[in-house]
Amino acid sequence: MHDAAATCDNFCRRIDGIDVGGVTNTHECQVMTKQAPPRIYCIPATDAPVVAVFRRGPSNWAHVGRWDVAAGRYEPGAWLGGRIFPRRSDLSPDGRYLCYFAHKPSATWEHGEAYVAIAKLPWLTALHSFGTCGTWTRGYYFTQDSDRDETQDPPLPIPYGLRSIPAVQFANERRRGWIEASDSPVRDRTDAWDQHRNARMRKSQPQGTRVLCVESVGWAGGEFGVDQAVDGLRVRYALECNGDIELLDDLQWADWSREGHLLVALRSGRIQIRSLEGDRPTILFEADLSNLEPNPTPAPSWAQSW
Q: For labeling, which of 6, 43, 52, 187 is most exposed (least CB within 10 Å)?
């Protein structure tokens, strides 16, 4: 009899072109014990109705998906037998390219076990990549001007450059219209990694009157691996309307669509589009990602080149 945990650990040592060892058969990896709900974090494109979905679970597996908000469709993509740091990753403004920071301890390619790569969403085949000094790297985000770091030499064959993500809580959110609340604790000048405060952020509803709020809970990094923390950051969401506050404790991620609908990832592992018109929210779309199991497949040909 095969040990299920050992089998899954050795399941697929070649993922999206990164050769990291031998392969066992797919059936054996389906013999898995029931897992805790996955951790989900999303990054919306700024110029397209597309969202990159990062799912972690089991703990040594990462999954990426493409959420087409306009069409109401979720497209599953790559699996990585390792770790992706979504708060240190980015989605291009047009929703086509993913810049992700990953840690694959058993990787044997020239960039080492900790690396940054650009791929076509929702796949992880590295079209551009470089190694880092370890997991303390901040990751990179896309720029649309000539302001880029020296890691792109020669420049990328796409209309974007890359810059290092600053060490500040909710860096991705800040680039997507969120602002720090007036009552958010001031960052201590000696806090180089912005870890020792509970930052509060706000974002107004497009074409509406509500305000979506989020705050970090506990010290960033201090609650690593607890309560669906993502990159060490636990969060709490709330809705503000006409002075009233509604806690959204069932959410682990949320943002507005361009139409003013609420895009959410529930702690149960589902993603939804919610309309807030009327007395009660209406679910316009839902996909359940809670029961997904590692199933690495090669990227399609269109995702293997620029």
A: 6
